[in-house]
Design the sequence.
């Protein structure tokens, strides 16, 4: 059989690095008989990837200063080709990511998938959840609208109500007594560098553990199997 | 596409074509907007800053006004009696409609919600919260210059 160009390229890598074997091992793995509720983790991962790509694109036109932030967002929506689409994906993707994340946690909880040997993955998952919430909160300030300004005022008042350390914590988060350029700058840094890096690291660990211990068996399947034996 | 003698499309060839077309549509749909997003934005002259704009004085007779595009913004040049030329941003400060010059009263009227401005852009009536921003203008010989 004559090989076409794609088969030749595949052959080149397969000969040298055994990608075919790796592919077979990973993609043809036997997994438990799971239902559609197991898709939410993957859906969240998909939305995270959308956020990374659209976020990088928005970063090209966004300007993180209190004088320019709002106008640069308006410019993205009105003047940049497909800017409205990219920003729409980023905004809607963030909401959908939280929704699929909550559904994923609900599924894991109700199917008792967090039990031995997956306890640490639940702990890491809670960390990922918290990071995603901080991600959303910091991103919400960036367009510098009335809505985002006051949401940040309210959101930072909440840790301010903690006894003793509250007032210091609030000023620390805001970078001053009120919401200023310093707040915007630090939220921007958190949103585009610090949290993405932390989230990507934890996410890698999360997926590595899933790969290592495998996908959990649904409770119903487990009961069926026990009945048979 | 491969065809057999009676010009029927083979099933495999059709499926191959469908898969390729589907993938092309998908990747095209993803990458075309990204490519356009990253391409240089086409701007109209002057929208990014510096622009020298001139118009013959004869085009704006005494007691009239002319709407022009200057730095990509609607700008109204008003020529009042006594060779006095004023230029204002013509977007109403209320909701951004383009104000019109009224010959009889010598005032600027907004057609949307009835805001009234005098020839210097000061609010005289209606819902406008702020005066119209003035633009530097000078007359040299028989030309009007904005900058």
Sequence:
């Amino acid at each position: 059989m004559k090989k076409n160009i794609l088969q030749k390229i595949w052959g080149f890598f397969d000969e040298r690095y055994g990608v075919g074997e790796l592919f077979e091992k990973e993609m043809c793995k036997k997994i438990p008989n799971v239902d559609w509720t197991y898709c939410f983790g993957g859906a969240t991962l998909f939305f995270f990837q959308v956020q990374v790509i659209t976020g990088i694109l928005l970063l090209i036109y966004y300007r993180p200063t209190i004088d320019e932030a709002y106008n640069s967002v308006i410019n993205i929506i009105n003047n940049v080709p497909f800017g409205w689409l990219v920003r729409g994906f980023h905004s809607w993707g963030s909401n959908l990511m939280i929704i699929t994340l909550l559904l994923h946690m609900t599924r894991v909880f109700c199917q008792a998938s967090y039990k031995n040997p997956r306890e640490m993955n639940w702990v890491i998952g809670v960390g990922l959840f918290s990071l995603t919430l901080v991600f959303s909160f910091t991103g919400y300030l960036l367009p510098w609208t009335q809505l985002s300004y006051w949401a940040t005022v309210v959101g930072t008042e909440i840790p301010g109500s903690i006894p003793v350390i509250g007032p210091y914590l609030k000023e620390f988060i805001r970078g001053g007594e009120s919401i200023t350029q310093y707040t915007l700058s630090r939220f921007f840094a958190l949103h585009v560098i610090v949290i993405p890096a932390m989230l990507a690291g934890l996410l890698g660990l999360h997926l590595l553990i899933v790969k290592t211990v495998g996908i959990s068996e649904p409770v119903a399947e487990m009961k069926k199997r026990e009945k048979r034996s | 596409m491969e065809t057999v003698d009676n010009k029927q499309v083979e099933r495999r060839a059709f499926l191959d074509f469908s898969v390729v077309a589907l993938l092309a549509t998908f990747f095209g749909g993803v990458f075309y907007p990204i490519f356009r997003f990253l391409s240089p934005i086409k701007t109209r002259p002057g929208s990014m800053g510096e622009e020298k704009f001139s118009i013959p004085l004869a085009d704006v007779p005494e007691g009239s006004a002319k709407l022009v595009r200057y730095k990509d913004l609607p700008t109204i040049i008003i020529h009042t009696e006594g060779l006095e030329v004023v230029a204002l941003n013509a977007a109403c400060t209320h909701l951004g409609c383009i104000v019109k010059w009224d010959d009889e009263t010598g005032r600027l009227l907004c057609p949307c919600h009835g805001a009234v401005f005098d020839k210097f852009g000061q609010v005289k009536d209606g819902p406008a919260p702020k005066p119209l921003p003035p633009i530097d203008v000078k007359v040299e010989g028989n030309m009007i210059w904005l900058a």
About this structure: DSSP finds ten helices and no strands in chain A. The radius of gyration of chain A is 23 Å. Chain A touches chain B through nine residues (CB under 8 Å).
